[in-house]
Amino acid sequence: MSINAEEAKPHQPAKKPNHIKLFLLLLNCVLLTVGQVAGPLLSRMYFLHGGKKRWLSAWTVTAGFPILIFPIAISYQAAKSSRPKGSRFFLTRWLFCASLLLGLVLGFNSYLYSFGTAFLPVSVNSLVSSSQLAFTAVFAFIIVRQRFTHYSINAVVLMTFGSIILGFHMDKDVPKGEPLTKYVLGFFMTIGAACFHGLFMTLLEYTQNKAGVPITFDIVMQVQFVISMSSTLFCTLPMIINKDFETLGEEAAQFGLGEGKYYMILILATVALQIMIIGSLGVVLSSSSLFAGIITALLVPVQQVFAVITLREGFNAEKGMALALCLWGFASHLYGGYKAKKQPKCNQEDELSQVHKEEGHV
């Protein structure tokens, strides 16, 4: 009995990392929720009241990356005393190069996203963007060999169908006075953004799997910093060519809500969208690209509700039904994860009971 008690002790601390991982996942989900809801609304407000710089809107998606310096610095100081001599705190060369390339993909995706935001209402934009869940599922199956259960398939189908329902009365949301060609172009640009976002999320998970080092909180922060920095630089070059920085004051003076609110909306959008990126990358690195896609799809009806409150967009029965389907799909995914975690314990109990039966027969 004493030997069994001693053997049981080393297994007890293993619970702590699981609690930390769960806390980080929940924290990133909260950040993703705040950014995903507030960011697109602020970006749409910029275009609704006279903003026309699409590269500037794309630039705001990741331009807030310097705020990551503070958690990185705090984490560095906290780990400085406990870190063994000669250990690598910063990214490996492979992770750094992979993060730079991922940043370029994110930068191009941000431009496609801002193009759709310029010409589509939030309700339509979020609807089309939700197709990224299907793209993420396909890319996850091909690139990272994501295993699907009937629970996760049920979640993808329900949440995708719930988002499609929102398009039944799409014609009522077409902005007045907007040319049909721009609306259609924005529609297909948003589909392209959804496709690239699904590819980006999957490639990020693939990078994590091939990192060759433990994915700690420090590594997550550094990867996010390099990706956001690379994306911002990608969007900065076209802004310099188009002289967007030089004409910023002119656009602010002609902004419909006033010059002060012009800068306030841009700053708040930059912060909100950076929070969205931090949360999105954090969810992938803490869980999977498929789970991040499900969370994003779940937030589509939530965006509809806030669009009704802040931008006075219409709310109908279809949007209520979409909200119910998305919640149902999300609950299905969570239940599938619970069943998957419970299954090994059941198998172990069956194996032990079988051993006891055999010993009894002997």
UniProtKB/TrEMBL annotation:
This is Probable purine permease. InterPro entries: EmrE-like, PUP_plant. It comes from Linum trigynum. Pfam families: PUNUT. The keyword Transport applies. One of its GO terms (molecular function) is purine nucleoside transmembrane transporter activity. Its main location: membrane. It is a multi-pass membrane protein. One of its GO terms (cellular component) is membrane. It comes from the Eukaryota. It is found in: Membrane.
